[in-house]
Amino acid sequence: MRKLLLTISTVMLAGCEVGPDYEQPTLDMPKLSDREEMSIFKNQQWWSIFGVKTLNQLEEQALKHNADLKIAIANIDAAKAAAGIAQGDLLPQIVASGEGSKAYISAKGKNYVPGMTTKRNSTDYLGAVGMSYELDFFGKYRRANEAARAQLLATRAAKDAVLLTITSQVAKNYFLIRALDAKLAIARRTLSTRKQTYNVYKNRFKSGYCTELDYLRIESEMASVKTTVLSLEEALAKAETSMSVLLGCSPRLFMERKTSPDKAIERLKIPNRVPKGIPSDILNRRPDLLQAEGMLIAANAKIGEARAAFFPSISLTGALGVESKTLGKLFTPGSDMWNFSGGINLPIFTGGKLSSMSDAAQANYRAALASYEKTVQIAFKETLDALVSNRKSREIVRSRTRQVNALKRSYDIAKKQKNAGLIGLIDLLDVERGLLACEMDLTTALQDQLNAVVDLCKALGGGWVRK
Q: Which residues pair with 313 in a beta bridge?
C-alpha cells in the first residue's frame, strides 16, 4: 500500500495542467494618484467620519441583522463547501466496508451440478479498506480546484460589496430622514404663518374690509402649503419603514420603530478635505472589482478543466481486508486478502459534447472578461462622478445659503412694506413663496452634499484616510 501511494504521488507531481494560466487583463487606465496620497480606510467604518452617534448605531444594527448580508454570508459558506469538494477530488478516496452474506442455491439452477455440488448453502463474511483514485495527470481536478477557490474569493468579495452597499444605503436613508425632518419643520412653520394670515383675512372678508379675491388667494396658499406638509409626512413615514428593512427589523416593528431625533441636517459634519484624484490601488480597493476578477479567474480555470476532458482519465482502485466463511475466523491467519486494479478511459466519440463544453467554457470566459472590463469602467465613472459631486455640491450649498439669506431679508422688508401699505398682498405672497421654495432647495442641497461624501466613500471601496 505504501508503494502504491508513493507511485500515485510521483505521477501526480509529474502531471501537467492543460489550459491557459490566468493573467490579469491589461487595460487602458487613466493617470492615477500616488498610493502615498491616500490609504485604505483601515477600520472600514467609513461612516464614522460624520461623527453622528445615531448613524453609528444604525450601521451597527444593520451589520448584525440585515437580511441581504445574511444571504451573502451564507453564500460564502456554500462557496467554502464547494471549494472543499473540489479539494477532495484531488485526494484518494478511502472507505471501509463490511459485508456478510448467506445463500441457498436452487437444485434446478445453473450453479447446481448433480454429483458435484455437495452443499447448496454458503456463507461469506468480508471486511476491507478500499481506495480509489483518478490520477490528475492533465490537471482536470486541479483546474476545478482553482476555479472553486477563485469563486470562493469572488463570493467573499461579493459579501463585501453587499456590506458596502447596505452601509451606504443606511447612511443615505438617515440623511434623507434628517432632510425630510428639516423640510417638514420649514413647511409647518410656513403653514402656521399662512393660517394666521388666513384667519386675519377671513375676519376682514366677513367684515367687508378685503376683497373676496384676496381672501381666496390666502386660502389657496394655505392649502398649497398644507399639501406640502402632508406629502412630506408621507415621505418621512416611507423613509422610516425603509430604514427598518435595512436594519433587519421584523414586520411587527415597522409600526413601532421611529428613528430618534438627532442633529439638524445643517449641523451634520462634512469632511473638509476629500481626495482630488483616483488612488493608484483602486483596483484592489473595490469589492465589486475583486469579485469580477475572481469570476474571471474561475472562468479561465474552467477552460483548462474542459480541455482536460479530451485526454485519457486514469483511475486506480485497490482493497485490503479479510474474508472468511465464518464470522469467528474473520481475523485468523490466512483470511487476509487484497486486490488492485487500474483502468484508463479515452474519449473517442462523444457526439461533439466535449467540443461544446470547451466552446462554452471559452464563451463564459469572454463574458467574464467583458464583465470585468465593464466593472472597471463603472468603478472609474462612479469615482470621477463622486469627486465632481463633492466639489460641486459644496459650491451649490454656499450659493443656496446666500440665496436663502437674501430672501429672508427680502421677506422681512416685504412684510414691513405690506404693513405700511407700500406693496400689496400678492407681492408679499410671492416673496414668501420664493423663500419657502429656496429653503427647501437648500435642505436638498445639504442632503446632496452628504450623499456625495457617501458616494465617494463607496466608490473608493470604503472611504479614505490622508497620511
A: 345
Do the first three CATH levels of 15-90+137-183+264-311+353-459 and 94-135+312-345 match, i.e. the same topology? no
Q: How far is CA 38 from CA 29, 276, 458, in A?
A: 18, 10, 15
Cβ atoms 291, 86 nearer than 8 A: no
Contact criterion met (CB below 8 Å) for 287 and 76: no
Element (H, E) at 122: strand 121-135
Whole-angstrom distance, CA of residue 158 vs CA of residue 273: 30
Return the C-alpha cell found at 418. Answer: 405690506
Residues ≥6 apart with Cβ < 8 Å to 147: 86, 297, 298, 299, 301, 302, 305
Question: What residue has cell string 448453502?
Answer: 121
Contact 225, 191 (CB under 8 A): yes
DSSP one-letter string for 243-283: HHHHHT--HHHHTT--PPP-S-GGGS---S---SS-BTTHH
Name the pTM for this structure: 0.80
| 108-144 pLDDT, tens digit each | 667 767 766 667 677 888 888 888 888 888 888 888 8
Q: Could you tell me if 182 and 265 are in contact, meaning their C-beta atoms sit under 8 angstroms apart? A: yes
94-135+312-345 CATH fold? Outer membrane efflux proteins (OEP) (2.20.200)
> If one looks up domain 15-90+137-183+264-311+353-459 in CATH, what number appears?
1.20.1600.10
Tens of pLDDT along 170-200?
999 999 999 999 999 999 999 998 898 888 8
Domain assignments of the chain as residue spans, ordered by start: 15-90+137-183+264-311+353-459, 94-135+312-345
pLDDT digits (tens, 9 = 90+) for 12-65: 444 567 888 888 888 776 666 554 344 444 446 888 888 888 888 889 989 888
